[in-house]
UniProtKB/TrEMBL annotation:
Domain of life the protein comes from: Bacteria
Subcellular location per the Swiss-Prot or TrEMBL entry: Cell membrane
Full protein name: Putative spermidine/putrescine transport system permease protein
Keywords, comma-separated and alphabetical: Cell membrane, Membrane, Transmembrane, Transmembrane helix, Transport
Family: Belongs to the binding-protein-dependent transport system permease family. CysTW subfamily.
Domain ABC transmembrane type-1: 60-268
GO biological process per UniProt: transmembrane transport
InterPro entries referenced in this protein's UniProt entry, alphabetically: MetI-like, MetI-like_sf
Length: 287
């Protein structure tokens, strides 16, 4: 039975109202506030200050680079784990246990997890003790209160999102495609790179987008694990709103961060679409 026009309107009314009330309206208010000068008039002075001050540009670069590294690390760690859970673990009860272990860190407070990493990454922490015991270094490495500690802490938090996104796609793949590839003489690695990996790209893309956007807006973990030595945009936004009480410039930082993230995602989607179109054209020419 098909849903009529008014039935579709009724179904969409609640989620659209929610998005308008809790996303669109606050964003418009913040965007308008970012254009206000101290006298209450409209001005681009806040944005001029943002793009001409190297301090804020460096903070933006630090935020995006941390988000990029975390996305890459979670993909490199999460994809093999998701592949193992889907294709190598046969017993259902064991799969359930593994999924529970994957999502368990999400039930712990970000503050608790961040302070746990302070203990682990300190000069006398477990990680440095292990590296010295394995003779990989002669002295403790500076792993704490820098960009490295932020990346490690965020990667630990974001890893479940990547694993679950990839696993959701892998477990719905048609296994007959892999069997057909093997019947045609493809080896395990050839089957993976030509069948499994391309078909799992939607999971990789959704996981990467989720991890990247969450890292860009992360505040608690960077503020604790940076030790005040690294600054990301979310920390500056909080500083402007809670300490400096410069609401208009805080709104400017928030809007700039959101627009930058949207632009990067748009470029990524455009490149992915162009790559898929070029691949389709090559396939048509080959046929």
């Amino acid at each position: 039975m098909r849903i009529g026009f008014w039935g579709a309107i009724l179904l969409l009314a609640a989620p659209l109202a929610f998005m308008l009330a809790f996303f669109a309206a606050p964003f418009v208010a913040i965007a308008f506030n970012s254009l206000q000068d101290p006298d209450g008039g409209l001005s681009m002075s806040n944005y001029v200050r943002l793009v001409t001050d190297p301090y804020y540009l460096k903070a933006m670069g630090t935020t995006l680079s941390i988000a990029g590294w975390v996305t890459l690390i979670t993909l490199l760690l999460g994809y093999p784990l998701a592949y193992f859970m889907v294709f190598r673990v046969r017993k259902r009860w064991l799969k359930r246990i593994l999924y529970i272990l994957v999502v368990t860190p999400l039930f712990t407070s970000n503050v608790v997890r961040a302070f746990s990493w302070i203990i682990l990454l300190g000069r006398n922490g477990f990680v440095n003790d292990l590296l010295i015991w394995l003779h990989l270094t002669d002295k403790p490495l500076p792993l704490l209160f820098n960009k490295v500690s932020i990346i490690i802490g965020l990667a630990y938090i974001m890893l479940p999102f990547m694993i679950l996104s990839v696993a959701a796609i892998l477990q719905n793949l048609d296994h007959r495609l892999k069997d057909a590839a093997r019947d045609l003489g493809a080896g395990p690695w050839s089957t993976f790179f030509h069948v499994t990996l391309p078909l799992s790209l939607p999971g990789i893309v959704s996981g990467a987008l989720m991890v990247f956007t969450l890292c860009v807006s992360a505040y608690v973990t960077p503020s604790i694990l940076s030790g005040g030595r690294e600054v990301v945009m979310s920390m500056l936004v909080f500083q402007q709103y809670a300490t400096v009480l410069n609401f208009s410039f805080g709104a400017t930082l928030a809007v700039a961060l959101l627009i930058t993230a949207f632009l990067l995602l748009a470029v990524y989607h455009s490149a992915r679409f162009a790559f898929a179109k070029a691949r389709q054209m090559r396939g048509n020419h080959a046929a």
